[in-house]
Amino acid sequence: MMSTRSAALLAVPESKLSVLVDLFSLTKPRLSSLVIFTSALGLFLAPGSMSYWQIFVAILATSGLVGGACVINCYMEKEIDAKMERTSSRPLPSGRLSSELALSFGLGLITVCLLALWMTINTLTAALGFTAAVVYIFLYTPMKRKTSWALFAGAIPGAIPPLMGWTAMSGEVSAMGWALFGILFVWQLPHFLSISMYHMEDYKKADIKIFPVLIGMRGTLHRIVVWTLVLWAVSLTPYFLGFAHEGYLVLSCLVGAFFSVFALRGYRYPVDSPELMKWSRGYFYGSLVYLPVIFIGLLILK
Fold this sequence. Notes:
Radius of gyration: 21 Å
CATH architecture of the largest domain: Orthogonal Bundle
Oligomer: single chain
Largest sheet: none
């Protein structure tokens, strides 16, 4: 039989592991995976050359920087998260982690990643990363409980990673770098509008100002359709900038047309119906397919 002392010794590593897992979860890993993908895209599309070590640092530090900003966001919104069913079990509102530890971790991660970008990559990329963190923490986060326009503020730092990848490789901002920024900026708008539709009740509990609460489901659907059409147009810019050939033009036209038709299908369903909620979820998952298809197509067909 295992002694009490032995059991206690085994429990310590498990406790430390759970803390590490909780800290990692505060970085919002699914968002970080998107950052890794989009920053790597900007890096590999840009002209120039870098060592493998610099490529590794650029992608890892960009992802870590966004992760650190997410940790601070979780720290600032712990009371809000406690009110929503889907976030109440997070480490801070549930009490599994202390606020002081989370704050220290987030600030430390941001600082280390900014220094890594500045010292290993270049000042421009570090400055873009600093801008993304500041906008996310000090603009987007407090705006969420004041105005639905927070959606657009949040899309700015979300669209900066591919631009950071571009500047990391090329050392400068160019039209194509801005095109990548524009595609990701616009993509986020209908993507998050669809999330706000099927999580409306949760957001309402926390008094977060989202479009479905303020203008209704039909008004939100109008905006999803409009921004889907804008996304289709913006996705064509790499071709018109001379960066991609006709194969990309065909791909982006086909994918954009299909996604736009899917967006328009939302009008078939009554407001607040289960069918509309099912459609909004379908749109959300469809947007997760749209972005990699466009970006991978850009890599292959440039």
